[in-house]
Sequence to fold (211 residues):
Amino acid sequence: MADTVDLTALDRWIREFARLIAEHKEMLTELDSAIGDADHGINMHRGMTAVVTTLESESPGRPSELFKRTGMTLVSTVGGASGPLYGTAFLRMSATVGDAEELDGNDLAKMLRAALEGVVQRGKAVPGDKTMLDAFGPAVEALEAAIADGEPLARALDAAVRAAEEGRAKTIPMVARKGRASYLGERSAGHQDPGATSVTFLVAAAATSLV
Ligand code: ADP
Ligand code: MG
Fold:
């Protein structure tokens, strides 16, 4: 049963994501200054700092509660497009895990697939629109494929990180068709998408803290 993750591990994941966002806050904002309004790092840092504060004031009792609080805090503290999108992702994770106390690789893949679908429904973007989906989508697909192949969770998560990183790089030449960057039209090409960059930190945090 080494390949299951419990509330402690999932809590570590959220905190590690917050730490990576804090560490890369300026970089995320710089990416957003090229094709947006220079606030993605500030937005995500504000949101994840508030998340850590709420987790510290009262520890959640089960994974669904951890994700629900994370999602609700992001929705209420992040003003930009990323707040509702990340918020929806975590709220979908909460609904998908239900009463489970421990999650295996399959559960994690299902949970992240539901999160991805939530972002699609909320933001109506498709692959290639130069959004967070272009890193998150390939990551979820890689995770699902590795789990289906019977890979241990650590290797499956590493494959997801590599897919996210490749997807993130592929946003550079893309012309944005959703979000503020789309206002720039062709001029949005040549810059890495901020949301694809932050979501890669979410996947990277999973790989280092869940196993
Ligand atoms: P805002 O654009 O409101 O300033 P942020 O700067 O925090 O919000 O977030 C920008 C990121 O949000 C983009 O880099 C992109 O990845 C993501 N994004 C914007 N619109 C959408 C959408 N409709 N679907 C998916 N992701 C989106
Ligand atoms: Mg912005």
The longest strand covers residues 4-6. The pocket of adenosine-5'-diphosphate (ligand 1) is lined by residues 32, 36-37, 39-40, 43, 80-82, 85, 119, 123-125, 131-133, 178-180, 193-196 (CB under 6 Å).
